[in-house]
Amino acid sequence: MAARVLAADVNPHPSSPFTASRRRRPGDAALPVPLRVTPRTPRRPEKPTRIICRAAELQGSSSGARRREPLRRGAVSARLPVPDHIPRPPYVGTDAIPDVCPDRQVHDSESIMRMLDACELAARVLQHAGTLVKPSVTTDEIDRAVHQMIIDASAYPSPLGYGGFPKSVCTSVNECTCHGIPDSRELQDGDIINIDVTVYLNGYHGDTSRTYLCGDVDESTKQLVKVTEECMMRGISACRHGTSFKEIGQRISEHASKYGYSIDPFVGHGVGRIFHCEPIILSTYDYEPGFMVAGQTFTIEPTLSMGSTQCVLWDDGWTAVAVDGSLSAQFEHTVLVTRDGVEILTGCP
C-alpha cells in the first residue's frame, strides 16, 4: 500500500478528508495541508483531453483497442470482522491518518526473520487473490477472500482501519491509479486490476502488489503491465548497502521513458514494525537524501500511466483516478538491503 503522502499531481476532491501532514521532525508543527512532492523532471501540460504519451497514441490508433466505460464506483459493503485474539496495529481504532514516521528501520537477524514471515504470507495471499481475477468477479469478493486467508493465518489485514480505510485490500482497476476500495463492481473482460496486499503478523508488516490482466486484454495494455514490472525490477536491482536512494528512481525513469510512459506520483516507503516510515522511495529522478544501509526494509512500487499523471481523489478520500481516463499499472515488492545487494522478501514462496 503506497504511503499516504500526496504528490504534486494529485488533486483532492473538494469534500475529501484527505489531510495527511508532511513528514515531521521532532519539534516541528503539523501542517494542515498534504505534503506535495514536486518532481524535478519536466512537468507536462495537464489537459485531460490531450494524449501526451507515445503509448497512449499507439493505443488510440490501434484497430484492436477497445472502448472502455469510465470507472464507476459500486456499493461498498460493511467492514469484515477480525477475531479478537489477532493483534491489531497501533493505528486501528482511530480514523486519523498516521504520520509517515521519520525513523528508518534497520533490522537485526531476529526481526529480519519476522519480516520474512510477514512478507511470505503477503506474497501467498496476493498469489491467491490473483487466481480470482476473471470477468464477472467483484472486487468485494476478492476482498473477502483476502481477508479470510489473512485472518486464518492469525494475521491482521493492514489496510483495514488505516486512516479509516474500510477494506482489507486495495483494488485499483483501469484508470484508478492507487488505493481503490473494493466494491460491488464486476470486473469486465479487458480490465486490468492492481491488487495491493499488506499483512500484519507478529508485529511486522509485509507489503506487496501486482497488476493482473482480466480476460482478453489488448496488446498495448499488456505492454504497459509488462514494462511496469520491469521498472520495479530495475529499481530493485539498484539496491545495496551504501548506494544512494536516487539510483532507484533513475533506473525506473530511464526504462519507463523508453516507452513513453508517465510515472504516477505515488511513492514507496520504509516498512517493518511501522506500516509507513522513511525512507520515501520515489520512482522518478527525484530522490530521498541519504544512502541505503544493510538491514533496511522498504517498498519499491512504481506506477506507470499511458497518459497524464494528474489524478483526482474521489470523495471517499482514497480512490485516486486519472483525470484523462488513462490506464495505470503498478507493481510492488518489500525488499531487504544487504551488504552484497538486495533480497526480495515478498517473492512468491
From TrEMBL:
CDD domains referenced in this protein's UniProt entry, alphabetically: MetAP1 (cd01086)
Cofactor(s) demanded: Co(2+); Zn(2+); Mn(2+); Fe(2+)
Domain Peptidase M24: 115-338
Region (Disordered): 1-48
The protein's enzyme class: hydrolase
Single GO biological process annotation from the record: proteolysis
Reaction equation(s) it catalyzes: Release of N-terminal amino acids, preferentially methionine, from peptides and arylamides
Pfam families attached to this UniProt entry: Peptidase_M24 (PF00557)
Segments of skewed composition (Low complexity): 31-40
Keyword set includes Metal-binding: yes
Residues that coordinate or bind substrate: H179, H276
Residue sites binding a divalent metal cation 1 per the record: D196, D207, E332
Sequence positions that bind a divalent metal cation 2: D207, H269, E301, E332
Cofactor notes: Binds 2 divalent metal cations per subunit. Has a high-affinity and a low affinity metal-binding site. The true nature of the physiological cofactor is under debate. The enzyme is active with cobalt, zinc, manganese or divalent iron ions. Most likely, methionine aminopeptidases function as mononuclear Fe(2+)-metalloproteases under physiological conditions, and the catalytically relevant metal-binding site has been assigned to the histidine-containing high-affinity site.
GO cellular component annotations of the record: chloroplast
Gene Ontology terms, MF aspect: initiator methionyl aminopeptidase activity; metal ion binding; metalloaminopeptidase activity
Assigned EC number: 3.4.11.18
Keywords annotated in UniProt: Aminopeptidase, Hydrolase, Metal-binding, Protease
Keyword match Heme: no
HAMAP family the record matches: MetAP_1
Known function: Cotranslationally removes the N-terminal methionine from nascent proteins. The N-terminal methionine is often cleaved when the second residue in the primary sequence is small and uncharged (Met-Ala-, Cys, Gly, Pro, Ser, Thr, or Val).
Family classification: Belongs to the peptidase M24A family. Methionine aminopeptidase type 1 subfamily.
Protein name: Methionine aminopeptidase
Source organism (scientific name): Dichanthelium oligosanthes
